[in-house]
Amino acid sequence: MKPRNFLTVKLLVLLTFACLYETYGSASQKAHPWDGIVPIDNLVPNGQDAQPRILKGYVTTFDSIPLINAEVMALSSKRKFYTDSLGNFEIQCMPKDKIKVSGHGFTSRRVKIKAENNYLLVNLKFKTNPESPEIAIGYGHIKDKDKLYAVSALNNNDLGFSQYSDIYDVLTGRFSGVSVVNGDIIIRGQNSLYGSSAALLVLDGVVVDKTTFEMIRPIEVKNISILKDGSSAIYGSRGASGVVIVELKKE
User: Fold this and answer.
1) Confidence of residue 174 (pLDDT cuts 50, 70, 90)
2) Across residues 186-214, what is the average pLDDT?
3) With helix as H, strand as E and coil as C, how does 9-51 read?
4) Residue whose C-alpha is closest to residue 62's, from 132, 111, 118
5) Nearest Cα to 103, choosing from 126, 121, 80?
6) What pairs with residue 101 in β-bridges?
């Protein structure tokens, strides 16, 4: 091959490589059109923590009376469920969620649940207005109204206890059908088969005698509950004449 022809071929090869680099080499350095976009798999929650689950529970008032048709809502999805005739419910929610429980005549509650919580017990309290029990009965939340009236409760927000001289004055002054005889608290309509008509006395969850009970100063009391009829059955034969439950303020 003549030198001129060799130089011509060599020049053509170099020009070809230059064109190829310009077309493909520099393009490989340019940003891809999808660069910076997160794959959709990374946007969709996955794994066990993101899977909805079923949470079961039980709604009451006075810690013992089941609430019917109380509204139970998962705040993550705003889906609503309602308790059955026994106060039970099942709700679909996220493993970590907030549950709102409400009913007509009651103060609603919000409960934060964790992944390990499988069962939820919620006790609703009546609103402070006197007609709240009647509202609850009217909406069908309480089936056995006689059982409701068998439970009486009073807290220091309803009326300052400090105006009373002793705990007995609070009981006889604020609870109808309650009297004091020789230091024993008698709840009208409660007759015991075991010889005593005195109500069982419970202070901060502990059964106490008359001596300890009468030392309670009204100003120290947070709330008082009186149980009778079937509501006192949880205390067995000791609660046959009714139960007076006093909770003191925590310092």
Assistant:
1) confident
2) 80
3) HHHHHHHHHHHHHHHHHCHHHCCCCCCCCCCHHHHCCCCHHHC
4) 132
5) 126
6) 72, 109
